[in-house]
Specification:
- The chain is globular.
- The protein is 25% helix and 30% strand.
- The strands form 3 sheets. Strands 5-4-3-2-1-14-15 form a 7-stranded mixed sheet. Strands 6-7-8-9-12-13 form a 6-stranded mixed sheet, with helices on one face. Strands 10-11 form a two-stranded antiparallel sheet.
- The protein has a single domain, classed as Nitrilase/N-carbamoyl-D-aminoacid amidohydrolase (4-Layer Sandwich).
- The two termini are 29 Å apart.
- It is an alpha/beta fold.
Amino acid sequence: MKICISQTKPIKGNVSANIEAHIKFIELALILNTDAIFFPELSLTGYEPELAKKLATNHDDILLNIFQETSDKNNIIIGLGLPTATESKIRISMIIFEPNNPRQTYSKQQIHSDEFPYFENGDGQVIIKTNDKNIAPAICYESLQHTHSENAFKLGADVYLASVAKPANGIKKAFDHYPKIAKQYAMPVLMSNCVGFCDNFLSVGNSSVWTKEGKLVGQLDDKTEGILLFDTETEEIDKRILTND
């Protein structure tokens, strides 16, 4: 299976512009014959807690139809970030589009203390089941908690997909933690991070892939938009930088 992770620079609160950018990333990934592509945390709005309530929606929003159409037409799985509304509060979610299947929403189950004023915990782990791999999404803070990866493994995950918005200190923790869980559970770990300013911090990219042996095999830099494609069978990486051409 070929899985792409993207490294984007979202425009704060501009969902329409970010949708257009997502399509460009997907088109680039399709050139590489990818089976799935995943985006950073809250990728359609940017990681902006103070704007989340205003921008929150759900997976049936007609603005997202283009992603379902693209998934159906090209037989590709797409996972992107969006705040979603519940009766009580807002959740940090990943909307998952699978070819000719109902959309799924995975919401971050373990939020950071800084997020409590804006968000609530999600409930339940989603496993994205493909023909030959089971992918477990994890969203930022929870991906650094051992209980999350352990539960994903127990549910049959073959690949651990971390969708994040991390500054430099968070990346340092990630580079210590992810190789260990990759090796412990013999499952590749893919981290999709954004670049640029988010909320009150600078997100520093470094989107990366670790093999099931915990070996770092692919990485983007701390400023540039692009994608990494990982072949789960050969463990080969293809790296592409997104240009404005």
